[in-house]
Design brief:
Chain A is α/β, with parallel strands linked by helices. Chain A contains 13 helices and 17 strands. Chain A has a single domain, classed as Alkaline Phosphatase, subunit A. In chain A, the strands form five sheets. In chain A, strands 1, 4, 5, 6, 7, 8, 11, 12 and 15 form a nine-stranded mixed β-sheet that branches. In chain A, strand 13 and strand 14 form a beta hairpin. A seven-stranded mixed β-sheet of chain B has the order 1-2-3-4-5-6-7. Classes of the chains: A alpha/beta (525), B mainly alpha (486).
Chain lengths: 525, 486
């Protein structure tokens, strides 16, 4: 390994607040100076007047170097700087964390809450009636036009577990874990199309260019296993989510924090393996030569990105062994494969759930699964609530239950946060595309209310939070915005959402964006 | 008659000099009145010195009539000679105090009639002081001398009134009468509103329904530790006293009460409460406030006297608040072991870390090292044993030989020994870990015999015994039974 060749930058391993910053290369000093804006100048100017009156203030605001360590609200900034050769080095959370990793199960296309968790007998009674005018007033729909009919749930509901939470008959395996789930029925978004809504859920912003949740998390916490990426993305369902690769992009954060998409069959990461005719030792000597050139480049220009590049080459080299091993579910006993319903070799949600557990065991910080195909409009059999939707439920039900069981058995549910949800909800009305009765039963997009669940570290098990009206159409109690969910998840990971920030374009950018968020204390254990 | 600056007395020249800032202050007051907006920190900082400096001109102005009267007694004829100087000093110090006062009022978020009255009172006091100074001794024995005396009397009255208003601003509206004895209160025919600290009965609507709303949403900023806008909502008296914008509850009139108004504004409004993105009041909680105010905002009205009040409206979950990390204190706590920690971090990268940025406790996770970590490496952790609160030795090569090293980690909350060679022997040696909450022996050769020790861990919540020699239907006490996870 060539770590020894990397220049010693006097870095301490575990930075905490206020620790002296290592000596900076001129290039880096320049970057820091560029980050000093007119705001900083004006702020220290006004503060300067204050210092004329009270000398003690000087120690707090005295120099502009100190000002850079403060947030604009005057609180101390958390220091996320690392040795450039170890950009993913683990950092302690701001305060003691309840969970150290996240497994996020995103059901791309937005599953219908009214067929899974939202028991609405009133709606079933009114099935087939015209929907009230108040439901349509000022609303925009993707496809509904004219006056649609109300649509009762397509599946029977019952109460389950000691907690007595309602669930439909579509999730018989997950039902066994219902006392571990915290079901939030009052999620709300302001986006009614898939791509922006997915971006909002995953990046805190409906527009492109913002870091994803996983990127923020590994920027803040790093990762414990330097032989695997800290943020891994697995896809299933036959199509990529509408939001595209931006969903795991790093936005304005350094690119080392972006998610790495892995495949659950074939080569886990494309082009990771050596091409035919290239042995591991040949690859080693090739990397050594590239390192040498990069060292020269660093000596000449001093850009820390060069050091980061060297370390990325090294990580890829180590990943050739470890990633392949982590992804190889052939090694699991037959009983485990049966539990998950996974068949090694194919690309399925079941396989991805099993891989997720293996990655979690190997210290991967953020594991993101997307399962496509929940967009149940009713425009064809695959999108029908009574056909394709039922298949989707079957595809995810058993693997999720097996994943929860495995985590629980291994004591990992204690410090793993599992999140399940889509990007918005579905309407209480039957979709009538072009104003006509459609052949299949489906529902349109409803950003006004949807259901997600969380389980694991720091989350109160066996609870339901929030409430919608009798039709399941609008929230009547305890609305949770996407930013509130993000703030809550960051809290579980040990962060004040204000403090996990990054200076970009003159703002202290953060996952929850600029609107005030709140940590939903009611769902915390 | 020709006027020339040179012919004027020193007093007149200084008098004219004092007139300029006085007029400037009047202009400031007219065009930049206090408007309830908080402004620059430093202006508030300077402004706070108003409260300090204001006592100087007050004392001087009150001293003038004392000297004038005492000076007429034959024993102290010299006293009156200093009156002129005193008045000059009073005028200038009043101007300084006024300037500071304006800084405070303009930047400190003040508004309303109380502060306006106080400020104009202050201006007139300064003006009167200036007038008395100019008139003093100039018209001895003439009719104008009467005006001087009259001016002095008015100045004293005005100082008292303005001072009282200022006291109300900083101490609350009833700061003088708050603790007045009942007898005196009756005699003065003051209302008996104030019943002391026990005003709110423990079975009252206020105590049972209203106070918890404040406790859940408001008291973090309007309570014992912080008093934003000088408002406290942690007792009946404090609620009724109001803050620096005046009274916030008008009995019988919810719509006219600032308290109700603020919590019912649209959520995006700048004046909406609770501010800063804190959890808003629920519809039921707002309803409780409305009913309580409409029913007369009484401290003693029984809890069941208001019909139709929502029950169980108040959430028992407190808002999450974030504390600033005291960096110096953290460094101090970490100092004794810092070098040992750094050494170990160098030897085993990504294995040892502080539990958080605000903590000196340590978290150890060697599971990723796998078989490369064994019993012989455990000794390295010994110097830090008492700081370790979470330890994960899963998948490593450790055996019962490590038990002694783990046993000294007295503060362990979480211990993971998944897929290791440890046996019952290790568990029996860990009986004294009385902080243990979670123990994981998944995939080890541990047998039911080890379960006796589980009763010795008072805080234990989970014992992960899957894939061990312990069967799922093992016979153990009910207390242990509920903690086993298979």
């Amino acid at each position: 390994m060539s770590n020894s060749k990397i220049p010693d930058l006097h870095t301490t391993n575990g930075p905490c607040d206020g620790e002296p910053v290592r000596e900076m290369h001129p290039e880096e000093t320049f970057a820091r100076l560029q980050a000093q804006t007119r705001r900083h100048f004006l702020r220290s100017l006004t503060a300067g007047v204050g210092t004329m009156f009270l000398g003690t203030l000087a120690s707090q605001y005295g120099s502009s170097a100190r000002a850079a360590e403060l947030n604009l609200d005057g609180t101390r900034r958390l220091d996320f700087t690392r040795d450039p050769s170890r950009p993913l080095a683990a950092l302690p959370p701001q305060f003691a964390a309840r969970a150290k990793r996240i497994i996020y199960l995103h059901m791309a296309g937005a599953p219908s809450q009214l067929e899974l968790f939202e028991y609405k007998p009133e709606l079933t009674k009114l099935d087939g009636q015209d929907c009230p005018a108040s439901f349509l007033l000022g609303k925009r729909f993707a496809f509904i036009s004219g006056v649609p009919k109300l649509l009762g749930s397509q599946y029977p509901f019952h109460q389950a577990g000691k907690s007595g939470q309602w669930i439909s008959d579509r999730l018989p395996h997950l039902e066994k874990h219902i006392d571990d789930l915290c079901i939030i029925k009052s999620m709300r978004t302001d986006q009614f199309n898939h791509a922006p809504a997915q971006l909002l859920v995953q990046t805190g912003n409906a527009r492109l260019g913002y870091p994803s949740f996983g990127s923020w998390v590994i920027y803040g916490l790093g990762t414990e296993n330097q032989n695997l990426p800290g943020f891994i993305v697995l896809l299933s369902g036959g199509k990529s989510p509408d939001g595209g690769k931006q969903l795991w992009g790093s936005g304005f954060l350094p690119s080392v924090y972006q998610g790495v998409q892995c495949r659950s069959h074939g080569e886990p990461v494309l082009y990771l393996q050596n091409p035919r005719g290239v042995s591991r030792s040949l690859r080693r000597s090739e990397l050594d030569t590239i390192d040498k050139i990069n060292q020269q480049t660093y000596a000449a220009f001093g850009n820390p990105e060069t050091i980061t590049r060297i370390s990325q080459y090294e990580m890829a080299f180590r990943m050739q062994m470890d990633a392949t091993d982590a992804m190889d579910i052939h090694k699991e006993p037959a009983a485990v494969l049966t539990n998950y319903g996974s068949k090694p070799g194919e690309s399925s949600f079941a396989n991805n759930c099993l891989v997720a557990r293996r990655l979690a065991e190997r210290g991967v910080r953020f594991i993101q699964l997307y399962h496509w195909g929940w967009d149940s409009h009713g425009s064809n059999a695959k999108e029908a609530l009574n056909l394709g939707f039922a298949d989707r439920c079957r595809e995810v039900d058993q693997p999720i239950a097996a994943l929860l069981a495995d985590l629980k058995q291994r004591g990992m549910l204690e410090d793993t946060l599992v999140v399940w949800g889509g990007e918005f909800g579905r309407t209480s009305m039957r979709e009538n595309r072009f104003g006509q009765v459609m052949q299949f039963v489906g529902r349109d997009h409803n950003p006004g209310a949807f259901t997600i669940w969380m389980a694991g570290g720091g989350i109160k098990p066996g609870t339901t939070y929030g409430e919608t009206d009798a039709m399941g159409y609008e929230i009547v109690k305890d609305a949770v915005e996407i930013r509130d969910l993000h703030a809550t998840m960051l809290y579980v990971l040990g962060f004040d959402y204000h403090k996990l920030n990054y200076s970009f374009q003159g703002l202290e950018q953060k996952l929850t964006s600029v609107k005030p968020a709140r940590v939903v204390a009611e769902v915390l254990a | 008659m020709t006027f020339s600056l040179r012919q004027m007395s020193i007093r007149t020249r200084f008098g004219l000099l004092a007139l300029a800032p006085l007029l400037l202050l009047v202009t400031l007051l007219l065009f930049l009145p206090p408007d309830g907006v908080e402004r620059a920190e430093w202006a508030q900082f300077i402004g706070r010195f108003h409260l300090l400096s204001i006592h100087f001109p007050i004392a001087l102005i009150l001293l003038v009539p004392v000297l004038e009267i005492a000076g007429r007694i034959r024993r102290f004829p010299d006293l009156r000679a200093s009156v002129d100087f005193l008045l000059a000093l009073a005028t200038f110090s009043a101007i300084v105090a006024l300037t500071l006062g304006w800084c405070l009022a303009r930047s400190g978020g003040y508004s309303g009639s109380l502060v306006t009255q106080h400020m104009w009172g202050g201006i007139f006091v300064a003006a009167l002081s200036w007038l008395c100074w100019m008139l003093h001794g100039r018209f001895l024995g003439q009719r104008l001398d009467f005006i001087y005396a009259f001016g002095l009397v008015v100045a004293v009255g005005l100082v008292s009134w303005t001072g009282y208003r200022g006291g109300q601003l900083s101490q609350g509206e009833n700061h003088l009468t708050e603790h007045m004895p009942t007898v005196l209160r009756d005699w003065l025919r003051l209302p008996q509103e104030d019943k002391g600290p026990t005003a709110a009965a423990s079975t009252s609507f206020f105590t049972i329904c209203v106070e918890p709303v404040f406790a859940g949403h408001c008291n973090s900023c309007h309570g014992p530790s912080k008093q934003r806008s000088r408002l406290r909502l942690d007792s009946y008296e404090a609620v009724m006293r109001g803050g620096k914008h005046g009274v916030i509850v008008k009995a019988g009139n919810p719509q006219g009460s600032e308290l109700f108004h603020r919590v019912t504004l649209p959520a995006g409004d700048d004046k909406f409460m609770p501010a800063e993105g804190k959890r808003p009041l629920s519809a039921d909680e707002v309803k409780l406030l409305e009913l309580w105010i409409a029913a007369g905002a009484s401290p003693s009205l029984a809890a069941d006297a208001i019909k139709g009040a929502p029950t169980n409206a108040v959430s028992t979950v407190a808002d999450v608040t974030f504390e600033e990390i005291d960096t110096a204190a953290v460094e101090k706590r970490r100092a004794p072991l810092a070098s040992a920690v750094a050494q170990l971090q160098k030897r085993f990268p990504d294995v040892l870390e502080y539990e958080s940025r605000g903590s000196a406790d340590l978290v150890v996770n060697v599971s990723l090292m796998g078989a490369k970590f064994g019993d012989k490496d455990m000794a390295a952790l010994k110097p830090l044993a008492e700081q370790i609160v979470v330890a994960d030795f899963s998948d490593t090569a450790i055996t019962d030989g490590s038990a002694a090293f783990i046993a000294v980690m007295k503060r362990l909350r979480v211990l993971r020994l998944m897929h290791t060679q440890v046996t019952d022997t290790t568990l029996h040696m860990l009986g004294d870990l009385n902080q243990l909450e979670s123990l994981n022996v998944f995939g080890t050769a541990v047998t039911p015999g080890a379960l006796q020790v589980a009763a010795r861990w008072p805080k234990l919540q989970h014992l992960y015994t899957g894939e061990t020699k312990i069967p799922a239907d093992v016979q153990v006490s009910e207390a242990v039974r509920g903690k086993l996870v298979f």
